[in-house]
Amino acid sequence: MEYMTKEDISDIIVMHSNSYNCLSMLMNICCQERRIEKVEDFAELLGENYSTCDNLYNDRWLVRIAFTYASLCKEKLMTTEELEILKNLPDKVTIYRGMTVEESTKEHQGVSWTLDKKVAEFFAYQYIRNPSTADKPKTVVEKVIDKSEIIAVFWGRGEQEIIYMGTNEDGVDTDEDDNLEAEEKWMNCRDDWGMGLLG
Predict the structure, then answer these.
(1) Strand-pair partners of 153
(2) From the CB of residue 94, how many other CB atoms can be counted at a distance below 10 Å?
(3) Separation of alpha carbons 26 and 63, rounded Å
(4) Would you place residue 182 in the very low, low, confident or very high pLDDT band (cuts 50, 70, 90)?
(5) How far apart are CA 188 and CA 16, in angstroms?
(6) Statement: residue 197 has pLDDT above 70
(7) Alpha-carbon distance 138 to 155, whole Å?
(8) Which DSSP string do the residues of 52-105 spell out, in sequence order?
(9) Can you say whether residue 2 is alpha, beta or left, with left for phi > 0 and alpha for psi between -120 and 50 degrees?
(10) CB-CB contact of 167 with 159 (8 Å)
């Protein structure tokens, strides 16, 4: 099998995807089809494209798996400026996430958080590009985490986005949340990047 360049994959994503299927297309090309060789290049592509994705509620396990792979070289997820921002954060960081009330009771919540409570409130109460959760009651969750738990910071859209994959110790996931079929499909498709990484 011939590997594709990072630039070729980026071109395909730009030309043939939209904000609703961008992540699944990237994961299919890089992980299922193994069309990219290095996890470093995958991390860079994920960093470049993640903030353009919408309505990720139904792909929430796919998001976690993508960032689990990318965390093997998380410095590639960020720009030089974002790396400096992460470096200068305090050891304890307060983060916020706009989410459904239902999600707030789960062990595994979404990975996209923010340093700005007003941004979280916007995503909870005004953002219209998440049709999967449009009719669900919303809330804003606040959490204090260690800086070392942050996978990445994304500053490109002015949202002060923090990628955090910790768990809610008081939460409980359902069988639907666990989505074992999706996990099985993705968990070891790139074992060359890290054997048993998600097992």
Answers:
(1) 162
(2) 13
(3) 11
(4) low
(5) 26
(6) no
(7) 24
(8) G----GGGHHHHHHHHHHHGGGGGGGS-HHHHHHHHTS-SEEEEEEEEETTGGG
(9) beta
(10) no
| Distance separating alpha carbons of residues 189 and 46, to the nearest angstrom | 17
Give the model confidence (pLDDT) of 11-36 as tens digits. 999 999 999 999 999 999 999 899 99
CB atoms within 10 A of CB 136: 13
What confidence tens digit (pLDDT) does each residue in 41-75 have? 999 999 999 999 998 887 888 898 999 999 999 99
Q: How far apart are CA 13 and CA 21, in angstroms?
A: 9
Type of residue numbered 16: H
**What does the DSSP 8-state code read for residue 134?**
T
Structure tokens at 184: 């099985």
Q: Which two tokens stand for residue 197?
A: 């990484």
Share of the chain above pLDDT 70, in %: 91
pLDDT digits (tens, 9 = 90+) for 96-106: 999 999 999 98
Burial class (CB in 10 A: 0-12, 13-18, 19+), 7: exposed
Residue that is written with structure tokens 């400096």 in the block = 84
Query: Contact, 102 vs 136, CB < 8 A?
Result: yes
